[in-house]
Every structure is written in structure tokens, then in C-alpha cells.
Amino acid sequence: MTNNVNKYIGRFAPSPSGPLHAGSLVAAMASYLDAQAHHGQWLVRIEDIDETRTVADATTAIMDALAVFGMQHDGVVVVQSERKNLYQAAFERLRGLVYPCGCTRREIADSRLGVAADGAAIYPGTCRHGVAPGKTARTWRLRVPDVNEVNETIIFDDRWLGPLTQHLATEVGDFILKRADGFWAYQIAVVVDDAEQGVTHIVRGTDLLESTGRQIYLQRMLGLPTPSYMHVPVVLNELGEKLSKQTGAQALDLNNPLSELIRAAHFLELKIDHVQSITEFWQHAIAAWAQRYIAQ
Ligand code: GLU
Questions:
Q1: 179 contacts 139 by C-beta, under 8 angstroms
Q2: Which DSSP category does 293 fall into?
Q3: Which fold, 9-82+229-293?
Q4: Which among 67, 143, 152, 214 would be 20 to 30 A from 273, CA to CA?
Q5: How far is residue 11's CA from residue 147's CA, in Å, rounded to a whole number?
Q6: 8 A C-beta contact, residue 177 and residue 188
Q7: Is the CB of 15 under 6 A from ligand 1?
Q8: Where are the domains of the chain?
Q9: Is the CB–ligand 1 distance for residue 58 below 6 Å?
């Protein structure tokens, strides 16, 4: 699969941990508008790889809400929990770069390397050369290059934020691909799926920005193309927290889809007023998106 300039495949990849809320509607809308404005395809992928966070019926609720908002997806909806063989196959291709790790979270907590932007302690590489005697392997980690090695510095251009740099050795550390509970980590699943589905453009919230360096590194190690990235602002609550079920996000009012859509569009700095129907909303929003974020 190659990045073909004439082809645009975008996606919305919700984790089914609850119904769509104002924050996830903004992420869905941004990826949808960008795909429509490029005359591209828009896929929906259900990211239920962390089965401990999956909530029954959330997938149905998300799909129903997208339909109410008039957001039609292309192709079949793929579900990560049904694609574990793909993640296993990719993992096997990383042989020599992955290693078992016997460290517990508590043991890593006071890492001399400090904490990554997502709050996790940066792994100091303790098990790189083998699990210490008396310990058992819990997780599998991917070795990242040391300072000054090739690929240690990941540089990419974000369509919203501009040029960005991430240093894997000092800001991320060797990261988990297979978790202690046996589930695949989000990073490997998302990279494998985006490539397998031919995704060329990723539009998602800045809450995922910290993962991008890891994902680009994984793409390189697996010989996969790197899509274009655009990280849009995320909706926060009064406490400055990202909206989620845990932070008490309100469900969207599906009886008033037009006002929810207009609110989300305003958050994305699109000026949309006086639209009477959902169809009219999308016509205006696609044009406004193209003018603001695509036309130079
Ligand atoms: N499943 C992730 C989430 O809901 C999004 C993954 C992505 O867009 O790369 O936060």
C-alpha cells in the first residue's frame, strides 16, 4: 500500500468505552469533514482492543449516533478484537526489536528518566538484556533507539500544529506492545490497522499527539507508510479534563442533532449559522472546512 496523492482514506476510530459525547463528536466531525472535503473515503473502526474498557452496547450507541448525525461511513466497520491475528503477525515481524519485560509498574515508577507526557514513567530499559533471575516476563516491549541512533528523533509535520519533534529515548522509552493482561497495546493495533486499511490521512484529537512518535517509529520498523497527521483541539470540561465517561461527559442530545452539530463545528472554528437541516449543515461545514483547513 502506498500514499497515493489521488487517494484519500481517512478514519474515525472510537474506543467503545461509552456513547459518543461532545468531545468524540468533534473528533468524528473533523475526520469526516476532512475526508469529504478531499472527496475521500471515511472509515469507522471500533477500537475495542482494550477489552477491560469496553462497555456493552457502546458500539451500537456510537454507530446509531453517527447515523442520526448523518455521517455515513464507507466500507465495512472493522472491529479490533476480531483482528488479533494481524497484530500477532506484525509483532512477529518485530523479532529482535522486542523483548519480554518483568518489571512491575511500581518498579518503574521512579525511573531515572522521569515521566512521559502521558504521565507514564519512562522505562529505563532494565530488561533489555534479559529478565532478571527470579522474575517472570509480564509485558513485551519494543526497543527504541538510543540518543544519536537512527530514528531516535521523530520529526513530522502536523497539519494543525506545524512541525513537531519527539525524542524516543528521552521522551518515550521502550514501550509496551503486549500488555501484562495479554491484550495488545493500542500502539501496535492502530498502526497495523491504519496500514492494512490503507489510511492516508489521520485526523484526531491532540490527546493522541504523544502517541504519534511511537506510531511513526512502529511504521518504520514494520516497513509501513506514514500517513499525514492533523491533531485537532480536544473539548475539555470546567476542570480542564478531556471529556470522557470517567470525567462525567454528558451524552449528546440526539433529539436535537442539528444544534449538537453546530456546537461541534463552532469548536472547530467553522462559522455555520442559519442552517435548517442536517443535509444543509454538512454542505456548509464541508465548504467551510475546505476553505479554512485545505485551501491555502
Ligand atoms: N481509539 C482512540 C480513542 O478513542 C483513537 C485512536 C486514533 O484515532 O488513533 O481515543
A1: yes
A2: I
A3: Rossmann fold (3.40.50)
A4: 67
A5: 34
A6: yes
A7: yes
A8: 9-82+229-293
A9: no
Ligand 1 atom nearest to CA at 11: 8
- Which residue has cell 529478565? 131
Q: Is the CB of 23 under 6 A from ligand 1?
A: no
- Residue 140, phi-psi category: left (phi > 0), alpha (psi -120 to 50), beta (remainder): beta
Q: Which residues pair with 45 in a beta bridge?
A: 78
C-alpha cell at 184: 495488545
pLDDT tens sequence across 185-194: 999 999 999 9
pLDDT at 246: 73
Q: Is 274 exposed, middle or buried (0-12, 13-18, 19+ CB in 10 A)?
A: exposed
Supply the pTM of this predicted model.
0.94
CA-CA distances (angstroms) from residue 88 to 47, 84, 119, 140, 158?
16, 6, 27, 12, 30
83 contacts: CB under 8 Å, gap ≥ 6: 189, 192, 193
